[in-house]
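Lab notebook, bench 4. Still working through the backlog of constructs that have no structural model yet. Next entry is a single chain of 68 residues. Request: give me the structure tokens for it.
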Amino acid sequence: MSMTLTRINLETVLNKVASVDDAKGNYLKGKLNETKDQSLGDFATSLAYELSLTLHYERFKSRSLLSQ
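Model written out:
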């Protein structure tokens, strides 16, 4: 089953982000609103990268707290 990338799919992801981190979710929603439909793929790629960095940072932070 192939899934077409739509603005609604991205809004769903950003709502989940906002449920964890309201400031980051609202910032990213604003960026999505500025994005034209033709650039949704680029937006999704940068979103995945940013969320990946955030996840790695949170893991690093929790590991360093555990080792103290």
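Notes after review: The mean pLDDT is 86. The chain has one domain: 8-66. Flag for follow-up if needed.
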